[in-house]
Amino acid sequence: MSPQLKNVLERYIEYLKGLLGDEYDQVNPLFITRRYQRWNRINRRTIQDIFNNYARKARINNETL
Description:
Elements: H1 3-20, H2 23-27, E1 32-35, E2 38-41, H3 44-57
Antiparallel strand pairs: 1-2
């Protein structure tokens, strides 16, 4: 992991902790969504779908990777 990416992730996690407050320790997320008036983790399958959607739009396929 590059130092720049590490720095961005650390700042993002601090932002999440400030946003979620005490809920952060309960949810312990990296990616979140607000649903039903609660913060929730985004599950693995949803993240895969998001990345696949962007890869398709960018015309990136498994052979390219």
